[in-house]
From TrEMBL:
Keywords: Cytoplasm, Repeat, Ubl conjugation pathway
Biological source species: Lanius ludovicianus
One GO location term (cellular component): ubiquitin ligase complex
UniProt-listed InterPro entries: STI1_HS-bd, UBA, UBA-like_sf, UBA1_UBAC1, UBA2_UBAC1, UBAC1, Ubiquitin-like_domsf, UBL_UBAC1
Gene that encodes the chain: Ubac1
Protein name per Swiss-Prot or TrEMBL: Ubiquitin-associated domain-containing protein 1
Length: 391
């Protein structure tokens, strides 16, 4: 027999000895003089070391199948947890009741004197989606207004020379040179590395994983769906630069106006819708044609799930509906045009560029919202829409 303190000794007992009697004999070795307290025996237990079984006090050594030379462990039982005092129980219950949420009757009683208001939760829930839908119509109409205002500026052609330069520096068309170099140094072809970086938002790690995963894909070198060939931007930039050169001082105002119209058209062509390449690939893998996928993404602001629903549904609105502006006599449009911040913004070529970009590439809206020149204009449009939508 062993104890937790390290003591051990040999006990010899007949087979008909009860475990309780054996335990009493053991206790005489380790806690002498305490057997007068009946609790001493009940507060200890014997455990069979090999089987880890707690021996029952009322059973005999034979019944517990204890063999010669078996090792038993004598340990003191853990003291039972003290029962909580009634005062503590009451206090805990009271605390739980105080933290409990009020029931319906309590809410009605507390709000009985508040004025009744009818809130259309459906309208509230879809408010942001409605703004995104309406924003496109607003932008279409504001672009027309901005073009007319800018055409009246005697320095319009010169202003749009700078505007075209800004377009040519579009971040979306540039590739992170450091990231590209890292991939090419790993042995990946440059054109393939550029495609991987654009698909993975310039993340070197994700682009590398994509390149490894698609190394044996026969279409790995195919251009991204919906993107123009590499030569197109350069050609477009050259032609727009020629157009932006503007009329000479001898040419009349009418010719200058025509030249400016051509610049507007070329700006629009340079800002053609760029679908999210990942969304295009995912939807085409479902069996849809590339053209209808691009249409779906254009209608649904590059949102893949919404585009999928559009493709599977009635396909409304149609791509043609996207070129329709807002009713110019509507209170919303009048309120927007009367706002001083919007009025000032419409005379800035950068605002027109921002409108064109957001119209064709809704995912770039955040960029223009954070721009110090165009951000205030967009903020005012949003506030006016939210205000009128609540009334």
């Amino acid at each position: 027999v062993c104890t937790m303190e390290g003591a051990e000794w040999l006990e010899e007992v007949p087979e008909d000895t009860t475990v309780e009697k054996l335990k009493e004999r053991c206790l005489k070795h380790c806690v002498p003089g305490s057997l007068e307290d009946p609790k001493t025996v009940t507060h200890h237990k014997l455990i069979h070391a090999t089987s880890e079984k707690v021996l029952t006090d009322t059973k005999t050594v034979l019944e517990e199948n204890i063999q010669d030379r078996d090792v038993l462990l004598l340990i003191k039982k853990r003291a039972p947890a003290l029962l909580p005092k009634m005062a503590d129980v009451v206090a805990e219950e009271k605390r739980k009741q105080e933290q409990k949420a009020p029931d319906k009757d309590a809410i009605l009683k507390a709000t009985a004197n508040l004025p009744a208001r009818s809130v259309d939760r459906t309208v509230t829930h879809h408010n942001m989606r409605d703004f995104q839908t309406e924003l496109r119509k607003i932008l279409v109409s504001l672009i027309e207004v901005a073009q007319k205002l800018l055409a009246l500026n005697p320095d319009a052609v010169e202003l749009f020379k700078k505007a075209n330069a800004m377009l040519d520096e579009d971040e979306e068309d540039r590739v992170d040179e450091i990231a590209l170099r890292q991939l090419t140094e790993m042995g990946f072809p440059e054109s393939r590395a550029v495609k991987a970086l654009r698909l993975n938002h310039m993340s070197v790690t994700q682009a590398m994983e994509w390149l490894i995963e698609h190394a044996d894909d026969p279409s790995v070198d195919a251009p991204l769906p919906g993107q123009t060939p590499a030569e197109a931007p350069a050609e477009g930039a050259a032609s727009s630069a020629e157009a932006a050169a503007g009329p000479s001082s001898e040419e009349g105002g009418e010719e200058a106006k025509d030249e400016l119209t051509e610049i507007f058209k070329k700006i629009r062509r340079k800002r053609e819708f760029r679908p999210d390449p990942r969304a295009v690939i995912a939807l085409m893998e479902m069996g849809f044609d590339e053209k209808e996928v691009v249409d779906a993404l254009r209608v649904n602001n590059n949102q893949q799930n919404a585009a999928c629903e559009w493709l599977l549904g009635d396909r409304k609105p149609s791509p043609e509906d996207l070129d329709k502006g807002i009713d110019t006599n509507s209170p919303l449009f009048q309120a927007i045009l009367e706002n001083p911040v919007v009025q000032l913004g419409l005379t800035n070529p950068k605002t027109l560029l921002a409108f064109e970009d957001m119209l064709e590439n809704p995912l770039n809206s955040t960029q223009w919202m954070n721009d110090p020149e165009t951000g205030p204009v967009m903020l005012q449009i949003s506030r006016i829409f939210q205000t009128l939508n609540r009334t």
